[in-house]
Amino acid sequence: MSTYDAIIVGAGFGGMGAAIQLNRLGYDNLLILERESDLGGTWHVNHYPGLAVDIPSATYSYSFEPNPGWSRLFAPGRELKRYAEHVADKYRLRRYMRFGTEVTGAVWDADRAQWTVSRRDGDPVTAKYLLTATGFLSQPRKPDIDGIDTFAGKVIHTTDWDDGYDLSGKRVAVIGTGATAVQLIPELAKVAAEMTVYQRTPIWVSPKPDLAVPPALRRAFAAVPLTQRIARWAGSAVLELMMVTGVLHYKQLPAANRLGERWCRAHLRRQIRDPELRRKLTPSYSFGCKRPTFSNDYYPTFTRDHVHLETTPIARIDATGIVTSDGGRRDIDVLVLATGFDLWEANFPAIEIIGRDGRDLGKWWRENRFQAYEGVTVPRFPNFISLNSPYSYSGLSYFTTIETQMRHMDRLFTAMRARGATEFEVTQHANDEFLGRMREKIGDSIFALGQCSAANSYYFNPHGEATLLRPSSTANAHREAGRFPLEDYSFAGKG
Ligand code: NAP
């Protein structure tokens, strides 16, 4: 069995960023294992009508690989998929990728100082380093509703959109009102004969300042990359301001959060005149407890005669329709599940990972706290980089997180090799210190001080702690990734 330098699980933007970083460090014997049939992660799996990036596209790309061709300020999903393909081709990453390969687990072999990675169909493979880039929003959640499997019509989860299925003239039910549903519902309303949206928790919706990027500006971005860097910087600065002032420093700046809430309330008031409908669409939790979204056509969709908002809880589903707890029923042809993802149970971690002394990562996280040093490494898991860790998500663009982690890898692997070593492991002390610092900082945030219990937000783990987002500025995360004390790691092995 040949041993790779590194195995990366996941061929989305996180996994590709990790591979680019490993190449820069001189590692070329890589294997990228991907469960899906192609690269791109989220942007390969999701192709439902209305899919678009929900932050300005100039910020949603690698800083070292700008894309001057975005057609809109909020680019449609297919452009993100094309961008992923471009990156894979330009950085010659396809040669490492194996698709349709589901990884089931990984075990640290202390004697050989390597990871053994098992696959559902195929022999185990081994590598010196293991990197998991399995995403946060990658395990679809099917709701546990009584009778759902007895429904005889068409069922579509948004992550498994059937492009060939024609919804025109159909009676459609949509369950869920998260960011995905907000994009999808206006599109479905254009073709459905009747549409009922089953809402459990309303979402804060902000106006979407979307516009087409004029061809002249695209040409300018291509000819003078500095112009696009300025656009990226401006977009990032706005996102950072929203995140740091509105969410993370709620204690110091409660007015910033209230401003965000007022902005969304005014948007709802402008678009919905019926007070009863407006009341139903108004969240009862603080702005920022759950990721808010942007849309100009979500609210107006509910004013159309053939669109209904149902807020009475669903009691059960039968062969032909949905019954609510007040006894009301609607017959439907199509059931659309915009029910999001199982983040914590199925994804932390997405595969079984057994480290030194038999430590099981998922079990350890659940029996202790969800934690990872700088959102990257975990004690007793040598030579392991966990890209989708507790406290890893920094800022609002996922690319901020990816590039911060690439920077961490750069410093870590460079230091290891400078010592003539081949193994790294974060110390328990460094991990504990980082966790303590994050827990203290989260105390200033909306998550600790706001009214979040009604939000049903995936930012919170099953213990009720908000351990997904790193509660510091992206500047702080970026700085620490390039300057963390090297004593925070122990190094071993001979190069
Ligand atoms: P989500 O935010 O988790 O929303 C899932 C929705 O389904 C919620 O309204 C939830 O209600 C509802 N739901 C789940 N189970 C239910 C049940 N048993 N009965 C009734 N309702 C149920 O998932 P999402 O909308 O897919 O969005 C996830 C994240 O993906 C977003 O926050 C965003 O970060 C990202 N996203 C990004 C883009 C983009 O960039 N283009 C687009 C879409 C999504 P509760 O709230 O009551 O649980």
Automatic annotation (TrEMBL):
Gene3D superfamilies: FAD/NAD(P)-binding domain. Residues 4-207 form the FAD/NAD(P)-binding domain. It comes from the Bacteria. It holds the Pfam family Pyr_redox_2. GO terms for molecular function: oxidoreductase activity. InterPro entries: FAD-bind_Monooxygenase_sf (IPR051209), FAD/NAD-bd_sf (IPR036188), FAD/NAD-binding_dom (IPR023753). PANTHER family: FAD_NAD(P)-BINDING DOMAIN-CONTAINING PROTEIN-RELATED, L-ORNITHINE N(5)-MONOOXYGENASE-RELATED. This is Predicted flavoprotein CzcO associated with the cation diffusion facilitator CzcD. It comes from Amycolatopsis xylanica.
